[in-house]
Specification:
Radius of gyration of chain A: 20 Å
Strand content of chain A: 5-15%
Oligomer: homodimer
Largest interface: A-B, 70 and 70 residues
CATH class of the largest domain in chain A: Mainly Alpha
Number of helices of chain A: 6
Chain lengths: ~160, ~160
DNA sequence: TATAATATTAGTAACGATTATCATTATGGT
DNA sequence: ACCATAATGATAATCGTTACTAATATTATA
């Protein structure tokens, strides 16, 4: 029975993608694992800086990208960072094309009735029971390839 | 029986917040209403520019903010525009504090079982039936005030 | 309808998060 | 230890968005 350390496992995951394990990458991952707060890049930068004072913000961003590709973390702001606008002010789910940025409404079928416009309040009420936050809004988005990008990415 | 035009209704909604109806604001709203594509600010800028050539990007952004406050449109990128990172790579819902930016996991109770980690695939499968997109991921987020901001905003 | 008070605009500069560049340094395989 | 290659740090560039300001438009009031 063969034991591998956590660090070896991280190294393995990086190697699969052709990346190397460096002390900067390990420090960034540890910093992220040390909190449940889902921090942003700057928080991680400040945290890691205590250990590696000369690390640069660029390295943080590069590292977060690498760790993401290796499946070691998840980024909570997908796709383009621009805001998009909708003249329909009722809360309803969207589907976002990760290739071309197109955003459609999700036509609602039965299994998603929870998320139908008008039911928004009900869903938030349910979520309220699970947290001490005062919930005022929510957002459900699906990501994938739109019909166009789906066929043209078949190359 | 008293009829009011759509434009009067828009004006009324703006006035409630102390805003005036200008041709720029009307043009931005019309541009947004003319499409189902949930465009970004630049798309709207290019569209409105055909009608009001000297309009500036700043006006677009200011106007979108005003229309949002008046409840005439919805912005699809809430809170800070920075990315946040999570060492838990399994898809799970979050609650975001709109005041301080804190992000917590949503502790799952029964009514939200659809969204429990491990069930992600099932939810995406259901959504797939309602669209021609090839769905690969999704995201459910709740917004509100965290316990701390909730009590300190009681002033 | 003039006038005054205030809101809005266009144009431009500033900002801030993120990316790109590139010379130097670190890493892993031989 | 040596070599090929990947990664880093420092800095400059990018780009969406905001802030600033003088000029203009709108609304309320006389």
């Amino acid at each position: 029975m063969q034991m591998i350390t956590e660090q070896e496992e991280i190294s393995r995951r990086l190697n699969i993608k052709g990346y190397r394990l460096t002390k900067q990458r390990l420090a960034v991952l540890k910093a992220l694992q040390s909190t449940k707060s889902h921090p942003d890049a700057n928080w991680i930068y400040e945290k890691v800086r205590k250990e590696i004072p000369h690390i640069s913000p660029g390295t943080i961003y590069r590292t977060l990208g690498v760790l993401k590709e290796a499946g070691l973390l998840r980024e909570l702001d997908y796709g383009s960072s621009l805001s998009h606008y909708d003249a329909n002010t009722e809360n309803h789910p969207h589907i976002v094309c990760t290739n071309c940025g197109r955003i459609d409404d999700l036509p609602l079928s039965l299994p998603l009735a929870h998320h139908a416009p008008g039911q928004a309040h009900k869903l938030e009420e349910q979520a309220s029971k699970a947290t001490d936050f005062l919930i005022t809004d929510h957002r459900l988005e699906f990501y994938g390839l739109c019909p166009h990008c789906r066929s043209s990415s078949a190359d």
